[in-house]
Amino acid sequence: MKGPDARFERILATLALVIIGLISLVNVVVRYITGGSFAFTEEFSVFLLVLLTFAGASVALRSHRHIRIGLLERALPERGRRVLILFQGVCGVVVLGLITWFGGTMTWQEYQWQTLSPGLGLPQWWYLIWLPLMSALMLLRQCQVAFDRWRGRFTDDA
Asked: Does 144 fall in a domain?
């Protein structure tokens, strides 16, 4: 049986990494030939790196491969382990829900204020909209993995 997948996030992370590599390579070549560099590369690279981080975290979350300490979980009896899994799931939902809410609020404010990015003068919300979108996707993945763990589909592989 094939394990759980986060295909959209995998594709997004791959695209972000490829684009970062390409614009960095082009920037190095242009700087070597002309002595100057493109202005957009740093701003886009930072944005794509953040996007890559969220997409990778979502993939790790869905496949239950994020950093965790399973000592307590392995030491508890079945009933205690299920309570701990429920507690972990609720904590993850709360944290990701807060990130989604406040990220959405911040994005909306930047849209209303028409703030421009410092480097290229693009609307700042173009970059910020990905924070609530990716954290909402991580929230979905958190619910999926918590449900799978609750049903015993994932075990701690210590």
From this structure: yes
Stated pTM of the model = 0.88
Full residue range of the structural domain in which residue 71 is found? 7-150
In a domain, 1, yes or no: no
**Does residue 42 form part of some domain?**
yes
Do residues 120 and 128 touch, judged by C-beta distance below 8 A?
Answer: no
Closest by alpha carbon to 132, among 99, 83, 84? 99
Q: Does residue 3 have a pLDDT over 70? A: no
> pLDDT digit string (tens) for 93-151?
999 999 999 999 999 999 999 999 988 999 999 999 999 999 999 999 999 999 999 88
How many domains is the chain built from? Answer: 1
